[in-house]
Structures are given as structure tokens and as C-alpha cells.
């Protein structure tokens, strides 16, 4: 191989190395952020910028490093925590939170990993639940103001985690239950309260029933008295009319009056008593053809 050929080979090798280096520099100068990602760019270990939008970006090759984080919602399941309500009731809350990385710069500086964020949320969620429980009664937490309590717990958690670049979207109570040692006592108290209410309702029912029976008896007495009065008046009118008719008949036929009076005598003084009469005696003498 002559000197000219050797020089040409060296030049080709240098060009190849330069081309490879140029390609490597070109590839290392670009990075891609997906739609579900966000990132921070580090230069010699320090954050120089954060990237929130998807796309193709330039960076300084060999000097810049890209740290990517998810944009998706992340669920955090807290361990149950015991709290005391404002009316001195012991409860255990099993909570869950949903959060996202809102500021990748602050997130990288303070936490760096999702696991680290979940550890920080432990203290924040526990503190929020205890604060909300301490200001609310048992009934408010479980029934009447449950939604307001969740909103308040979410706000308090956000106040504590915003400095870490984390936004908590919702804190929810999966379960609210009593400590084992208090459960039986609460059940006994609930039974006693329900028994008291049942006894009160039964007493009120008996009182109402007594009033209704008294009114019904009074109405019955009044109706019966009015009916008896009307019956007596009607009977009296009937007797008067009968007496008038009898008097008119007696004026026309005296024997008819004596006949009726005799029947009345038998009815009043000899009820269900056999009477033996001879023809022409007693009432028979008033009957035509008895003799």
C-alpha cells in the first residue's frame, strides 16, 4: 500500500467517525413527550425547564437528561385511621385519595417518585381527616354533612401537598366504622334509644286509643238517648192515637171497649197462663156466636 492509499483510508475513517458522531449528536439532541407524559430537563443534575405539552423537543446532547412523569390520575389508598368526633365518638375512617402531578418542577425537587408522593400523602390525609372529624359530630360526618366533610378534607390535604407539586382531586371515605371495643356499647345504646322511642310511641298510641274509645262511647250514649227519646215520643203518639181510636170506637160500640180492656187485663196479669172459660163468660160473652 502506497502513502497515497494510506492517506485516503485515514480520511475515510475520519469521515466515518465524524458522521457517526454527528448522527449520535443529532439523535441525542431530540426527545419526545407523549400525551400522557410531562417532564423536567436536567443539566448536570439541575432542573433547567419543565415540559407539560406533548411533542418533539430539542436538548443539549450528553449534558441534558429528561425525567418523565405521568399525567394520569393516581389513586392512593390510605390505611384506616382512628379519630374522635366533636361529640366524643370514636370512629375509624378508611380513606382513599385521587391525585395528579400538577407541577413537575416542584415534584422533582421535593419528591421525585409517585411512591414518595404516596408516602407524603399519608400524613396529609391523616391530618385532614382528624381535623374534619374534630370539628364535626358523628351524625354530620356519617349523614347530614358527609359531602361537606369530604370537600373540607380535600381542601386541607391540597393545602399541605401543593408545595410538593401534587394536586389532590378528591378525598373519599371508603368505610366509616367503630372501633371493636366501642361497637357493642354503641349497639346497646342504639337499642336502648330505639326501645325508648318505641315505648313513647306505644304510650301515645294508647292515649289516642283511649280518647277515641271515650269519644265513641260518648257518641254511642248520645245517639242511643236520642233514639230512645224519639222512640218514647213516637210510642206516646201511637198510644194517644190508639186511645183516640178506641174512644171513638167505644162511643159507637161499648162492647168493643170492654172487649179490648179485658184482653189487656189478660195480657198484663195472666201472661202465658192457661185460662178456662165457659161459653158466655168472661171475654167470650163479647164474641159473636159464642153463646
Architecture blueprint of SSEs:
Elements: H1 3-28, E1 30-33, E2 37-43, E3 46-51, E4 55-58, E5 64-70, E6 74-77, E7 81-84, E8 90-101, H2 104-110, H3 114-134, H4 138-144, H5 146-161, E9 166-177, H6 180-252, H7 254-269
Antiparallel strand pairs: 1-4, 2-3, 2-5, 6-8, 7-8, 8-9
Helix pairs in contact: 3-5, 6-7
Task: Provide keyphrases for this structure.
291 residues, alpha+beta, 4-stranded antiparallel sheet, 3-stranded antiparallel sheet, 7 helices, 9 strands, 57% helix, rod-shaped
Overview of the structural elements:
With 291 residues, this protein is of the alpha+beta class. It contains 7 helices and 9 strands, in the order H-E-E-E-E-E-E-E-E-H-H-H-H-E-H-H. Strands 6, 7, 8 and 9 form a 4-stranded antiparallel sheet that branches.
**Major β-sheet, in short?**
4 strands, antiparallel
Q: How far apart are the termini?
A: 189 Å
Strand element count:
9
pLDDT average, as an integer? 80
Helix content: 55-70%
Strand content: 15-25%
The radius of gyration is 55 Å
- Form type: rod-shaped
Count of alpha/pi helices = 7
State the secondary-structure class: alpha+beta
- The H/E string reads HEEEEEEEEHHHHEHH
Report the uncertain regions: none
Short précis:
The chain is 57% helix and 21% strand. It has 291 residues and is α+β, with helices and mostly antiparallel strands.
Amino acid at each position: 500500500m502506497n502513502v497515497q492509499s494510506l492517506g485516503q483510508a485515514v480520511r475515510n475513517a475520519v469521515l466515518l467517525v465524524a458522521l457517526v458522531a454527528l448522527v449520535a449528536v443529532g439523535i441525542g439532541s431530540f426527545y419526545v413527550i407523549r400525551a400522557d407524559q410531562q417532564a423536567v430537563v436536567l443539566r448536570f443534575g439541575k432542573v433547567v425547564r419543565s415540559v407539560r405539552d406533548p411533542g418533539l423537543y430539542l436538548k443539549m446532547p450528553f449534558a441534558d437528561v429528561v425525567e418523565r412523569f405521568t399525567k394520569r390520575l393516581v389513586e392512593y389508598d390510605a390505611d384506616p385511621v382512628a379519630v374522635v368526633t366533636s361529640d366524643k365518638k370514636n370512629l375509624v375512617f378508611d380513606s382513599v385519595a385521587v391525585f395528579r402531578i400538577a407541577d413537575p418542577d416542584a415534584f422533582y425537587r421535593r419528591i421525585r417518585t409517585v411512591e414518595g408522593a404516596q408516602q407524603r400523602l399519608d400524613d396529609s390525609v391523616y391530618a385532614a381527616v382528624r381535623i374534619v372529624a374534630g370539628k364535626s359530630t358523628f351524625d354530620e360526618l356519617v349523614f347530614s354533612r358527609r359531602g361537606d366533610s369530604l370537600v373540607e378534607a380535600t381542601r386541607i390535604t391540597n393545602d399541605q401537598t401543593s408545595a410538593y407539586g401534587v394536586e389532590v382531586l378528591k378525598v373519599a371515605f371508603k368505610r366509616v366504622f367503630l372501633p371493636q371495643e366501642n361497637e357493642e356499647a354503641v349497639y346497646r345504646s342504639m337499642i336502648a334509644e330505639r326501645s325508648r322511642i318505641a315505648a313513647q310511641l306505644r304510650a301515645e298510641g294508647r292515649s289516642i286509643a283511649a280518647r277515641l274509645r271515650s269519644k265513641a262511647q260518648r257518641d254511642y250514649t248520645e245517639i242511643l238517648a236520642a233514639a230512645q227519646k224519639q222512640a218514647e215520643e213516637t210510642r206516646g203518639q201511637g198510644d194517644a192515637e190508639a186511645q183516640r181510636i178506641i174512644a171513638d170506637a167505644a162511643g159507637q160500640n161499648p162492647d168493643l171497649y170492654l172487649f179490648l180492656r179485658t184482653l189487656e187485663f189478660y195480657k198484663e196479669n195472666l201472661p202465658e197462663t192457661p185460662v178456662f172459660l165457659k161459653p158466655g163468660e168472661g171475654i167470650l160473652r163479647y164474641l159473636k156466636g159464642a153463646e
